[in-house]
Specification:
The chain has 11 helices and 6 strands. By secondary structure, it is of the alpha+beta class. Helix 3 packs parallel to helix 11, helix 5 crosses helix 9 and helix 9 crosses helix 11.
């Protein structure tokens, strides 16, 4: 029998952080709207992207959990899931599971990869030896995307469906990375999505052999 539990996101996890300049946000969001960027003026969308990037795994309801499965409203599965996905992840020592890769709009994140490079200059030792840097920086498939995103291919794991090991997001490498991005303000001054942030984090700090499709 299924058991459902309703949890509330803590206010301090959802609110706009104190270092964000709201006048700058409004000016930037209007400029993005004029450029045709979807949801750019919807503050709750920016909050949601930030929360899914670096807050969801801190929720008290997940404190004793190792794995999670993100399921969006109105999702449809086209086959039966007849096995324990969490046991599969554990038995095969997998960090992350996804179903599809997509390219994001480069106009939403011109500063994301430059900020990532600033972070890597400070912490080069954080990069996993078996990383996916070639995938992150590919400029052959969609060179215009890579150019507009200042070096990032914009290809990402579509996080609307993801299964993952929470210990990765809680790692020092990812936490330091998220905190760096958070202070940079791009979740509000641009429209950094959790999917590219998750993907870059995994592509840099996880062993790519532990990412499952």
């Amino acid at each position: 029998m299924s058991r459902w539990c309703i949890e509330i996101v803590p206010k301090e996890h959802w609110d706009v952080p104190s270092w964000i300049d709201m006048d700058k946000y409004r000016t930037a969001s209007k400029a993005m709207e004029a450029n045709g960027i979807q949801y750019s003026t919807v503050l709750s969308y920016h909050k949601m992207c930030r929360w899914n990037s670096g807050m969801f795994y801190k929720h008290p309801a997940l404190a004793d959990m190792q794995y999670y499965w993100r399921v969006e409203p109105k999702v449809r599965f086209f086959c039966d899931v007849d096995y324990d996905v969490f046991r599969y992840m554990q038995d095969r020592n997998k960090t992350y599971g996804f179903t599809i890769n997509l390219y994001d709009a480069p106009e939403t994140m011109p500063g994301l990869w430059p900020e990532t490079l600033k972070f890597l200059e400070k912490y080069p030792e954080y990069v996993n030896k078996n990383n996916a840097m070639d995938w992150l920086t590919d400029n052959k498939q969609r060179p215009e995307h890579t150019k507009k995103a200042n070096g990032y291919s914009t290809c990402h794991f579509w996080s609307n469906f993801e299964i993952g090991d929470l210990s990765f997001w809680r790692s020092k490498e990812y936490e330091d990375y998220f905190n760096h991005l958070d202070k940079a303000g791009g979740f509000f001054y641009e429209r950094w999505g959790d999917a590219p942030v998750h993907s870059i984090g995994l592509g840099l700090f996880a062993d790519k052999s532990k990412i499952h499709w």
